[in-house]
Amino acid sequence: MRAETKVYYNPLAGAGNATKLWKQVQDLLHDEVCVPEAHILVIGGDGTFNRLLNELPHPEGYRFILLAGGTSNSLYSQLTPHEAPIAKLQRFLHTAEPVFQSLDVPELTVHGATYRFINEASVGFAAAIAREIEQRQTKHFFNRLKLNELAYITTAFRCWRKELPYMLSLCNNRRISGNLIPCVNADFSDGLIDCFELSCPRIRLPFELTRLVNARIDKPSKHVSRQQKAQAEWHFEQPLPVEIDGNPLPQAQDIRLSLYPKKIQVF
C-alpha cells in the first residue's frame, strides 16, 4: 500500500466491525492500486466520521470515501443504501471519475467551542440517551450480541424515568441513531437544517417517540414543532445534555447553530 493512501478508522466501532473491514481493505489495496493523496478512507460509523471532521482544521480540503463499519451507519445508509462497503470501495477504485456528493456541514457552538456534525445534533432526551450509552458502554455489549437497536431501547427506557420529556433535534440527515426519523424531509445538500422540537408530559413521551421510528411522512402532533433554519440560537431554562452524531458534549443552557452549504465531498 502506498504511503499517500490515508485511512481513518475506529477499531472499536461496531464492536470490531471496523477492524474486520480494515483487514479486507488492506487486502484490496496493494502496490498497484492507491487512493489519491487528497482522499481519506473512513472506516467506521457516524461517530467515527464526526470525530474526523472535528480533528481536521480544513475538512473541505479532502475528499472522503465512507465505508460503513459502525453501529447505525446513518450517513452511509442515506448516501449509498444497499451497497456493501467493499463493493463500494471497488467501485471507487475502478471508476475513472467517481462522483462525489457535496454535503452541507452544520456547526454547533456550546460554551464558546464549535463542533461540526453531519447527521444531527440533539439536546435533551435524545442527547441523554447518547450520554448514557457511552458512559455505560451499553452499545458495545449489544453490538457483540448483534442486537444494536436494543441498546437504544433499553437506554431510552432508563432515561424516560429521570430525564425531562423534552427533545430538540437539528437534522441534516433524515435518519438518526436508533432508527428515529424526526425530520423526513431533511437533506444533506439543501442549505438548511430541519429543527424538530418535542415537549410533552412524561407519560406521552414513549408514544411520541414511537411515531418517529422508521417514519415516512411528517406525523402531526400538538407536542411537536418543525422548522427549517440555516442559523439559529436556543436558550433553555436549565442545563441540558447535548450530543452531535452520538458523541456527548458538555451540558448547556445556550447553543448556536451555523450551517455551511456543500462544504465537504463524500463518496
Description:
With 267 residues, the chain is of the alpha+beta class. It folds into two domains: 6-103, Probable inorganic polyphosphate/atp-NAD kinase, domain 1 (Rossmann fold, 3-Layer(aba) Sandwich), CATH 3.40.50.10330; 104-262, Tumour Suppressor Smad4. It has eight helices and eleven strands. Strands 1, 2, 3, 4, 5, 6, 7, 8, 9, 10 and 11 form an eleven-stranded mixed β-sheet that branches. The two termini are 21 Å apart. The mean pLDDT is 88.
Any idea what the CATH architecture of the largest domain is? Answer: Sandwich
CATH topology of the largest domain: Tumour Suppressor Smad4
* CATH level 1 name of the largest domain: Mainly Beta
Pattern of helices and strands: EHEHEHHEEEHHHEEHEEE
Uncertain residue segments:
none
User: Strand pairing plus helix content: what structural class?
Assistant: alpha+beta
- Look at the structure and give the mean pLDDT: 88
Distance between the termini: 21 Å
Shape: globular
Number of strands: 11
Number of helices: 8
Strand content: 25-35%
| Residues in helices, as a percent range | 25-40%
Describe the oligomeric state of these chains in a short phrase: single chain
Largest sheet data: 11 strands, mixed
Q: What is the domain tally?
A: 2
